[in-house]
Design brief:
Length: about 325
């Protein structure tokens, strides 16, 4: 487990100190990570435990629409589904959040008022992150002012891969400051910050571990795998590396950080694999929507279909649930 012999602020005082710390992290055994993720992915959950797992997965979903053709009407319909996923069954829990582009935050805030479902907004020139810091901070501030309670930012992967860790750190810290006072504590005001690593572009598991620690040192409340716009998106081995990072960060610093795999998680079977991975890697304390999310657009439908099958013994027709 990594150790911090100096305060976090000093670790991030210069590119050289950040580089020394990040490159001093233990290397990831790629073969071992792949094998462990594959092994945990074979675990099965039956009967009552499966029903509980499905409901937990529903509660962890960030129901997402991030398309250029998004309209206020589409967002309102998605918000209605987020609050009442199955209109015929009031026992189905609501999802954790609805995630939209910044300009659609006011629509989502209005549609979700009083529901308890959070509004998340991608900011910082999503999905590329190719913009100035001033623009990224301004976009974040506008989304928060419009009512977003969570901000999903993308890191500058070009800067990270070029070894300019201090630039990445400073951008995350600046966006976190734009999230508002005390942003980050789950029981205090301010928007929570989810930092998207875009792991499909980071090339190695060692880079995923370094980017995870860099984001957490800079103040991330969550670390997130992907934008969903790059392949590969979320994978079990990458999420395993990130879960190990948040576990070790808590042990080292006393601060707990959440994890959000996003992109390519489409089936109940996939979701349950991630829940098993969380339990066996970070521990059961992370099995809560405050600390683990599933970024998805189509996953919810499959969870609802599997839930109904467990209740009735048969699958719903293809037109039973709305398409997202």
């Amino acid at each position: 487990m990594p150790t911090l012999t100096t305060p976090l602020a000093e670790v991030a005082s210069s590119t050289s100190t950040l580089r020394a710390f990040l490159h001093g992290l233990p290397g990831v055994d790629r073969v071992g990570a792949d094998a462990r993720a594959a092994m945990l992915g074979t675990r099965s959950i039956k009967t009552t435990a499966k029903k509980q797992a499905i409901d937990l997965a529903i509660r962890m979903v960030d129901l997402t629409t991030l398309e250029g053709a998004d309209t206020p009407g589409k967002v309102r319909a998605m918000c209605a589904k987020a609050v009442r996923p199955d209109p015929t069954d009031a026992t189905v829990p609501p999802v954790a959040a609805v995630c939209v582009y910044p300009d659609l935050v006011p629509t989502a805030v209005q549609a979700l008022a009083g529901s308890g479902v959070k509004v998340a907004s991608v900011a910082t020139a999503f999905p590329s992150g190719r913009s100035s810091l001033e623009v990224k901070v301004a976009e974040t501030g506008l989304a928060v002012a419009a009512g977003a309670s969570e901000i999903d930012m993308v890191i500058d992967r070009g800067a990270f891969l070029a070894g300019d860790y201090l630039k990445v750190y400073e951008e995350i810290a600046a966006v976190k400051a734009a999230c508002g006072p005390a942003g980050g504590a789950h029981d205090e005001p301010g928007a929570h910050l989810k930092v998207i690593l875009e792991t499909g572009e980071l090339a190695t598991y060692d880079n995923v571990r370094r980017a995870s620690w860099l984001a957490m040192i800079a103040g991330a409340d969550f670390i997130k795998t992907s934008t969903g716009k790059v392949s590969p998106a979320a994978t079990l081995p990458v999420t395993l590396v990130m879960l190990e990072a948040v576990r070790d960060f808590l042990r080292t610093t006393g601060r707990k950080v959440g994890v959000k795999p996003a992109g390519g998680i489409r089936t109940t079977k996939d979701a349950i694999k991630y829940l098993v991975l969380v339990n066996e890697t970070a521990g059961p304390d992370w099995l809560d929507p405050d600390w683990f999310r599933l970024g998805a657009s189509s996953l919810l439908n499959d969870l609802l279909m599997q839930r109904q099958k467990m209740a009735t013994g048969r699958y719903a027709g293809p037109d039973y649930f709305t398409l997202d």
